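ok so i was messing around last nite and threw this chain in just to see what happens. nothing serious, just curious
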Amino acid sequence: MQLSADKGPHVALNAHLLSGRDSYRSAGVHHYILHLLRHLGDIKNGMRFTALLGADAPAPTSSLDLLRSHRDTSKPSTRILWEQLTQPRVLRDIEADVAHGPVFVGPLVAPCPVVTTIHDLSFMRFPHLFPPAKRLYLTLMTQLSARRAQRLIAVSQHTASESVALLGIPREKITVVYHGVDAVFRPLPAAKVAAFRQRRGLPERMLLFVGTLEPRKNVIRLIEAFARIYEGESKLAVAGGKGWLYDDLFAKVEELDLGDAVIFPGYVPNEELPLWYNAAAAFAYPSLYEGFGMPVTEAQACGTPVVTSTTSSLPEAAGEAALLVDPRDVEAMAAALKRVLSDEALRNRLKERGLTHARTFSWSRTARETAQVYRQAVA
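result:
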């Protein structure tokens, strides 16, 4: 298909993973889809965008076309059937020029070119950390979707390299488009942060982790590292919805007798998350493997010093504005945490570097670069 220079393609985006529920499903990929749609709606270059939504999914924006399914696709099995059986017909009916599968999977049979976003391949690198059904589905459908797609979007250079190594995709088929940082993540007035701490009973020396509770996030080692530096005047807040295989986290807290020092506030809605980042003395994100690592740049945008991993894409997300440690080395992690809590000059230095680094990521840029991939797919 060849479009004239003054006419952009009609792009249909599968937004059935948008969630309005307070759970881990409203975290990472939900925010990617939400912000991408909102900022694509601001693009005025002749392109037309249609968001394909489930029956109960929240409307992401009023500035693009919305097409709802009559089915509730919040149940994975129903969504999978819609993606592969119903979506091709919908794409044909609305005369889409491009279909975008923003989370690993696109329609395997489609009447138009397909673009698919690869976030990470942790289910292939760390298969033992996933429930078998989830692992098998993601592995099979990601491999098939990547081969079927005209173009792939990778959310980091590391993910692009992994797609070549594990999926066998030619590098020239892949475009790296980084995530953005929402404008809500910024330094907040000291009085507002102090009031939040008081309301929640949080100390000033609080370490914070934000992410889905699942083994890849490496929270058990974070708890073990915190136990080595705990002196009775700080807390570790592990914020995030329950994902899978998380029972060992709570058992580890009991085993180390940290019941009063480690708190689990659960899933934190986006509107409250900036307060948690601002209230923390430091942010710890020791994940074993990430496609990008949005919490790292969100914390930096709030002026919070960051300790994160030397692995996967996290050095890309953190830049020169964080302390990097081997996520499997508990002693090194403990030393880094103690250093960032006790060294005020270091905290100030990381804060300033983090604020500057975070400004290089924006969702408007993500949308512009993604729109260019759509044009490439139909060229």
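not much to say yet. Residues 76-93 form the longest helix (18 residues).
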